[in-house]
Write a structure and sequence with these properties.
This protein has 362 residues and is α+β, with helices and mostly antiparallel strands. It has 15 helices and nine strands.
């Protein structure tokens, strides 16, 4: 019944658009959303990260004593060294009380991969909030998460930028997961409510940045570089986020001035306008049609309010380019087919700025 209702909602959206399922010629790739500065060259491709050498090896680029020194995070009784923290097969857990108990696949990854595996909670964090270079999965329905894992497993969800390394990594992990591990991961992330941890700031200027692992890191506090139509997400505190992987330390998303207001029009009306007393349809439909009036999801359509704008832009662009081609992707492709790169920025800025409504208990 839920799947029938979902298809009816999405088909209604396509009918309102009057759109057929087509790939948009669209604008240029939003390279910043994928964590790159230049377009891919012929033959460029990602290096899969599923099989890896032990991340407990000391790095020659850092002093051994700095890597093995025990670290602490405010409010946590745990203690980890940098060697512990970067061990993707034994996920460090600073705040066990912030989430449900983690199963083996969350902490150690698919058993089939043995010592080369990565725990789900390493990239997505024990809280499921994720980071700009991957996905915020907490609060999504278990059915939706399972469908995405199946899409990765079947190579139906790939990246429009073939250099993005964590896409083939996810595919490799999904292909190694048992049905029980998939179910455990889906139920774990879906059991947590989504609460935003990205602070959206409209600005003409952003700090100068460098890119490490497809993530922008600020190299200065002052804002001196034109934002130039991009969204730039950086950690609130690089030490807490990158060195310690503190799941309570969030991100700042710098967005162009005026983008939230323009995004509101696209999100709430599809960009519809009235000219000379006549209703002029927009380039898309209101997001609430499928994602719910509060943008927190409807049936098995994912919630999007307050989530990473870089992630949202990547997913829309991937859908436009046809590299996300799961069971329900064609319906969404029709909805986003006519959106420009500027539209993607505006929509993501507005959606990321929306906080989920407080429950009665809050």
């Amino acid at each position: 019944m839920k799947r029938i209702k979902l298809n009816a909602i999405l088909c209604l959206g396509c009918t309102v658009l009057g759109a057929s399922v087509v790939r948009a010629s669209g604008g240029p790739e939003p390279l910043w959303a994928y964590g790159f500065l230049t377009p891919p060259a012929p033959g460029d491709k990602a290096v899969p990260q599923t099989v890896r050498p032990s991340s407990r090896q000391l790095l020659v680029t850092e002093a051994p004593e700095d890597q093995t020194r025990v670290r602490h995070v405010e409010g946590s009784s745990a203690a980890y060294s940098r060697v512990d923290i970067r061990d993707g097969g034994n996920v460090a857990d600073w705040f066990p009380g912030d989430h449900p108990p983690m199963s083996s696949v969350m902490t150690h990854g698919p058993a089939r991969l043995g010592k080369t595996s990565w725990g789900c909670a390493y990239c997505h964090l024990p809280t499921g909030k994720g980071r700009p270079e991957n996905a915020p999965v907490a609060g999504l329905t278990a059915a939706y998460i399972l469908r995405q894992l199946e899409d990765f497993r079947n190579d139906a969800r790939t990246s429009a930028d073939r250099r993005k390394p964590n896409t083939p990594m996810m595919a490799g992990l999904a292909k190694a997961m048992s049905a029980e591990e998939m179910k455990a991961a889906a139920e774990y992330f879906s059991a947590m409510k989504w609460t935003p941890w990205t602070r959206v700031i409209e600005t003409d200027l952003v700090p100068k940045t460098r890119i490490v692992g497809n993530l922008f890191l600020a190299t200065e506090q002052a804002r001196t570089e034109p934002i130039a139509g991009r969204i730039i997400e950086v950690p609130e505190d690089e030490e807490q986020s990158e060195v310690l992987r503190n799941p309570r330390s969030g991100f700042i998303a710098y967005v162009p001035v005026g983008s939230i207001k323009k995004g509101e029009s696209l999100v709430t009306t599809g960009g519809m306008s009235i000219v000379d007393g006549k209703i002029m349809p927009g380039r898309t439909i209101a997001c609430a049609t499928c994602h719910g009036p509060d943008l927190m999801g409807l049936a098995d359509v994912p919630g999007i309010a307050g989530r990473s704008p870089s992630y949202l832009v990547r997913q829309i662009y991937d859908l436009q380019q046809g590299t996300r081609k799961g069971t329900l992707s064609p319906l969404m492709q029709a909805v986003v087919a006519n959106l420009t790169t500027d539209d993607l920025v505006d929509i993501a800025a507005y959606v990321a700025s929306r906080a989920p409504p407080l429950s009665a208990s809050q």
